[in-house]
Amino acid sequence: xxxxxxxxxxxxLFLYPRKDAKFYKERLSLSDATFARLIAQLKENLKPFDTxxxxxxxxxxxxxxxxxxxxxxxxxxxxxxxxxxxxYDEVRSAVVTHVMDDIFCLDFTNYVFTKDDYVM
Length: 120
Known about the structure:
With 120 residues, this protein is mainly alpha-helical. The protein has one domain: Arc Repressor Mutant, subunit A. Helix content is 55%, strand content 8%. It has helices at 5-15, 21-28, 32-46, 66-80, 84-94, 99-104; strands spanning 51-55, 59-63. A two-stranded antiparallel ribbon has the order 1-2. α1 (5-15) crosses α3 (32-46). Residues 3-75 form the Mga helix-turn-helix domain. Pfam families: Mga (PF05043). It comes from Enterococcus italicus (strain DSM 15952 / CCUG 50447 / LMG 22039 / TP 1.5).
């Protein structure tokens, strides 16, 4: 992956929920300070999606608003070209919704990928 360390940590949190800090720090070769800083940044980044990081019995991502969580997962899937089946499984475990089936049926093969936040 060519993404930032923060996006790689987000990816790990989605794919490997309920792991302790040591697990993520070892997988990404992060110091204690860097890991704590990235978690704090991710918490802020997830707020607009009504999504948050729960740190009880390991780290995991949760969301209260199904629509916002769906938008977040869809944006991550398209921008980082993450494995759609892995994300689908994680979305189902993070929030139960009938909308997820519709979101993951979308065809993103003709999208133009860009670093510009305002272009889809």
